[in-house]
Design a protein that fits this description.
mainly beta; six-stranded antiparallel beta barrel; LPS_export_LptC; membrane; lipopolysaccharide transmembrane transporter activity; cell membrane; transmembrane
Length: 189
């Protein structure tokens, strides 16, 4: 046997061992070890009215899709429209709040809205207010909302923007934590 044949056999054996090693060490398919999370129900093109503990309307929700997580008892919503009725007392407006995605807590007392959030007050008890942000947390029973991110609040003649919003939905009073900018915008007469 020639030295070329010996080297060829050694290289062939090395290639076969390397191939076998790579084949055995490739990433195995992951097999779920626990229960697969599934929705216990899904609603399609629906309208839902949530009541607070006193039996009064907390909010109405319209959306093309809602899925409820059975373990967490939370709801994930696609393109939600939340209708928040006016609260008790004078000076309280109804609000319409839209977003790309929504989440509702198990008790229905917290709404997390993410992506293209836009809230508009009805303007029944004062100037209509429009609020835009990437994220907004709404507490309908407490009649308040907050956002850690950048928010713009538009009212007739005024655009106010800042970071870290705290909003009282009943009185439409709001405050920002930082980066506050105000711009006067003349209204058409």
């Amino acid at each position: 046997m020639s030295w070329r044949s010996i080297i060829t056999l050694v290289l062939l054996a090395g290639a076969l061992i390397s191939g076998w090693s790579v084949w055995n060490q490739r990433k195995k398919d992951v097999v779920p070890t626990g229960a697969i999370a599934r929705s216990d129900y899904v609603l399609i093109d629906f309208e839902l009215t949530a009541l607070n503990p006193q039996g009064k309307e907390s909010f109405t929700l319209r959306a093309p899709r809602l899925a409820r997580d059975p373990q967490q008892r939370t709801m994930d919503i696609a393109t939600p429209l939340f209708l928040i009725p006016p609260g008790a007392g004078a000076g309280s407006d109804a609000w319409e709040v839209r977003a790309t995605n929504g989440w509702v807590s198990p008790e229905g007392d917290e709404l997390k809205l993410r992506g293209n959030v836009r809230g508009v007050s009805s303007g029944l008890t004062g100037p209509a207010t429009t609020l835009t942000s990437r994220e907004l947390n709404v507490y309908p029973d407490a009649r308040r909302a907050s956002s850690p991110g950048r928010v713009e609040v538009t009212r007739p003649g005024s655009i106010l923007s800042g970071r870290g919003l705290q909003l009282d939905l009943a009185t439409k009073r709001y405050s920002f934590d930082s980066e506050v900018h105000h711009r006067y915008v003349p209204t058409a007469r």
